[in-house]
Design goal:
Blueprint lengths: L6 H23 L4 H28 L1 H10 L1 E11 L7 E11 L4 E10 L2 E10 L3 E5 L7 E5 L3 H6 L2 H6 L17 H20 L2 E10 L2 E8 L1 H16 L2 H7 L2 H16 L6 E7 L5 E5 L4 E2 L5 E8 L8 E10 L2 E13 L4 E10 L4 E14 L3 E13 L2 E15 L10 E2 L5 H19 L1
Parallel strand pairs: 6-19
Antiparallel strand pairs: 1-2, 1-18, 2-3, 3-4, 4-5, 5-6, 7-8, 8-9, 9-10, 10-12, 11-12, 12-13, 13-14, 14-15, 15-16, 16-17, 17-18
Helix pairs in contact: 1-2, 1-6, 1-9, 6-7, 7-9
């Protein structure tokens, strides 16, 4: 039987992420005594380093120019992925997506290829307008088929497909492609509400110097009263649950269920101990260590803790090493992160290792990502090299990928003589299935 973690695992992880942000915001607002000022200045240094990543990356690529080009014309994106499985019967396979998208015309086309050992063939061509999607599978079908999306529910329910498969869609089911991005204001509003929730912590936080040094670094301890934490978490859950962003997410059944479970947990699983965060600083005032000296306990019996080091030379955030620990009963779950960034006028790259470890298993993802072929305001290529996934020390697969993006003067082409897939009668559907079976047998036997 598949093992499921207790809700406390998800709740503890969510609580830790939210609390770190809330505590940082609260500490940022504290003004006055020396310990509080030290935390405030440390967070200011961290914010400045974060802004350097964004500004240098923006300076190299000029994202604003690329965004303007995407809003007004077509963008060409080429994605190639290669996967190698050391012990698989097929040890290497690849796929690619060549896309041309024009949001202003509400049109797009995609050429999808797949292959093995460096030999790729086109397996599918997709095109889309604001209310219709077109599908061509040249290895299987001679025709191109289309499906209307604006009245999808009613058209499907009245088609032979619904009778053959004995299933129905909601009559008002529809899909809108190239939707206008309207979530920005909603997100900004939600962030403001969450900041207001964090104000609860301001009145219930104490700050003091730590007597013992860590690796020669002096520290400051922040303690947040558990009742304030519970009130803050409850308010956060209420605001998120009532937001328009959550309502949209709830429409996705699986994601909506997961989100609802987390929000319910934030309301019902409470902290039974105060939250204590230790900050340590170097001579430049930068935060070099952040940790919880003791386990933070929850009402369902689970507990969490964390320790992170920020050990880069030019920027402390260039090297991040740390872990989040979550205890549920006798089981300990560790989520580890190791990140090294290369940031200069010539290079922007990152090496990332993510480790998920329990008492009985270990899963690790390692990857190197880097920007290349950058032409400011005109395009760039993002590459992932030597990525690997391992389980309990054994390599499961290796992956390399590239995504190239550039403006294009071309326009997506939409098929003119596509067959309406939902307009097929029962005989047409069976003939379609026979054609598929025959093509598959001819191509792969």
């Amino acid at each position: 039987m598949k093992k499921r973690w207790k809700p406390g695992v998800i709740i503890a992880a969510a609580a830790l992420v939210i609390l770190l942000g809330a505590a940082a915001f609260a500490a940022w607002r504290l003004i006055g005594a020396a310990p509080e000022m030290r935390v405030k200045l440390g967070l200011a240094n961290m914010a400045q380093e974060l802004s350097q990543y964004g500004s240098m990356l923006s300076e190299k690529t000029d994202f604003e120019a690329l965004k303007a080009a995407a809003d007004d014309g077509a963008i060409h994106t080429n994605t190639d992925v290669s996967v190698t499985i050391p012990d698989g019967k097929i040890s290497n396979f690849s796929f690619g997506i060549d896309a041309l998208t024009n949001r202003s015309e509400r049109a797009a086309e995609y050429d999808i290829s797949a292959g093995m050992y460096g030999f790729d063939v086109s397996v599918a061509k997709l095109a889309a307008s604001s209310d219709t999607i077109y599908v061509s599978l040249p290895l299987i079908f001679d025709d191109t088929y289309s499906v209307g999306l604006s009245d999808l529910g009613r058209e499907f329910n009245s088609s032979a497909w619904a009778d053959i498969f004995d299933t129905k869609l909601p009559d008002d089911c529809s899909i809108e492609l190239f939707r206008e991005e309207t979530d920005g204001d909603a997100l900004d509003g939600l962030i403001e509400q969450l900041r207001g929730d964090c104000e609860i912590i301001l009145e219930n936080i104490t700050c003091e110097r730590i007597k013992e040094k860590k690796d020669g670094y002096a520290g400051v301890r922040l303690t947040i009263d558990k009742d304030a934490v519970n009130k803050c978490m409850g308010s956060l859950a209420e605001d998120i649950g009532e937001s328009s962003l959550y309502e949209e997410l709830a429409g996705n059944t699986k994601a909506g269920e997961d989100a609802a479970a987390v929000i319910a947990g934030l309301k019902t699983v409470t902290h039974t101990t105060d939250v204590v965060l230790d900050f340590y600083f170097d001579k430049k005032g930068r935060i070099v260590y952040l940790e919880t000296p003791n386990d933070v306990e929850l009402s369902d019996g689970s507990a969490y803790s964390a320790d992170f080091g920020f050990l880069g030379e030019e920027r402390a955030l260039d090297v991040i090493e740390g872990s989040i620990y979550i205890k549920t009963g006798d089981e300990l779950v560790r989520l580890g992160l190791c990140r090294t960034a290369d940031l200069s006028d010539e290079v922007y790259g990152e090496d990332i290792n993510i480790l998920l470890q329990t008492d009985s298993r270990e899963l690790c993802l390692a990857a190197r990502g880097e920007l290349s072929d950058v032409v400011k305001g005109e395009g760039f290529t993002f590459r992932v090299d030597n990525a690997s996934v391992s389980k309990d020390g054994d390599e499961l697969c290796y992956l390399s990928a590239s995504v190239a993006l550039e403006p294009s003067g071309e326009s997506p082409e939409l098929p003119e003589n596509a067959v309406n897939l939902l307009g097929l009668d029962e005989n047409g559907i069976y003939m379609l299935l026979y054609e598929a079976i025959g093509s598959i047998r001819m191509n792969y036997e």
